[in-house]
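INFO  loader      accepted 1 record
INFO  loader      residues=636
INFO  predictor   begin
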Amino acid sequence: MSVPGQVTWKEFWYDKPLHLKAASVVGVTLAVFHVYTALFGSLDALMQRTVHLGLGLLLVFLVYPAKGDRRKMTILDILPLFCVPIILGYVLLNYDWIAAERFTLITPLFWYEVVLGVGAILLVLEAARRVVSPGLLWVAVGFLLYPFVAPYLPTRLLRAAPSAWTSVIDFNYLSTGGIFGIPLGVSATEIALFIMFGAILMKSGGSTLLSNIAFSLAGNLKGGPAKVAVVGSTLFGMISGTSTGNVATIGSITIPMMKKTGYSPIFAASVEAGASVGGQMVPPVMGAAAFVMAAFSGIPYSTLIFYAIVPGLLYYLSLFFIIDLEARRLKLPKMKSEISAWQTIKDYGHMILPIVALIYMLIGGYSPRFAGGSGIVTAIAVAQLRRTTRMTFAGVLAALHDGAVRMLIVMVSCATAGIIIGAFDMTGLGNRLGSAFLYLSHGSLLAGLLLGCAAAFVLGLGLPTTPAYIVQATTVIPALIGLGLSTPAAHLFAFYYSCLAIITPPDASAAYTAAAIAGADAWKTGWMATRLVLVAFIVPFMFAYDPGLLLIGSVPSVVLAVCTACIGVFALAVGIEGYLLRNLAVWERCAMFASAFLLIAPGVTTTVVGFALLIFMMLLQLKGRTKWLAGANTSG
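INFO  predictor   done
INFO  writer      dumping tokens
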């Protein structure tokens, strides 16, 4: 039995070219820095963020080449490596003066600070192009230029007072706004730790434990491989919070099995994409944006994950119901799982301890930073208890390096989002957009939610989840709160729609990754996946009106809201799939959709009517099924 953590020094060090050896040193240093500051106290805000960004940018230019071949470097890779220490080293060497003595946007810049500031912005933008996408680069460039063109725009909504170009550089380079703002701060103190925790679990066999548990729980059920995808991606998403990573890790196993069972390639890819996107919505980790949400909303992280339990449950219930109905419609056979649950527990069961410890600390009131750092140390220590998970010293270093590399996409996204937020802060655009939002909605919460949904979704099409949410934190969310929506509901509302762009065309990266594994049409997969996760488009509206779905309120009201929503999600799945005991006619599907909306919507009257409609439709199905079976027996 191969053990992922038993990496040799030859694999970790000797077989690499010089620049990748340097990348290993930088990656491990970055990881150790984060674990140390998590356990023994972070540095001052600007210093912590500067070290985080400096080491991260060095790693970016070492492992993400300007051109294709990762094992070769060009001048375009070497030049930034010399610039990063100079540009960010200046901030560290002059930290006391920058943090305590000078005044942002008041103290004039020296000529060399202007040069260094321009260099810092260019480095972040180039990192965004290499690590995230050219789309994020151009969005950031647009917002970077906005303060200069704003005075000349014809629309009063977008017009702003003139800004000096040196002020833009000052704000982004020598302050805790702009590049070094709140998003990068969350990345530097919390997000990086949880990504590294997931990397340690993967290297030590924790991912094997989760995937095998999924196979043991769901593999023997009808449509088992698809249900394995849902269970496995849920479990894996709880520790990784990355959609594309879920697709690549779990999907490489489940998608071929789903196809072999009888699901179409498009359906198989869509299921895995939908299940993986849910990893960002399911506690206890919920991906990078959840940590940023805690920082912007002021709601403790442990409280946020409590609010997110039921919406996450409804999301996965919907997928599970659809998969089961599709398997029954296609009459797919059960598939016997060859994985022994007992053997899995015997070999890997102890790796549940770091996950339990992490959850305990998050719920118990410890800071996410300390919980993440302690979880990493616990995972490394517990892995040494069994031969099946034992990690060599080189394996531990490789896992830390892998976690540091995985963290880069979040770090770069947060730094780039800081540039975008800087434009809002300097020009007051966020306040004006919020006022316009309130004006267009005419004080109507429903109109505001519809506008917020559209704005969040459009922003999400061009940006990863974290920067898409961050932009809304300065525009959409304050306006929703102004319309009377509670703070947790407003933030989770925007968060959900920021996540959905990962699965919905045209920017459906998770769906496209799954389609590549399945050999399916990417565009059709994106739309099929959107159909499968329709519940995610509806639930935010429901918890906006019924806080019981966020577990807020009296126990009877919460129990009623959760139970009726679960039944409503079942009705919604039937309507989406068009099958219950037999294929549904168009009018029957419409009736199921109506029942679903009535059950999920708040209110006793709507619940009673929706439940009655569902019972009526199920009786019709049962009657039609009985007649069909009688006819089949007669003809036989």
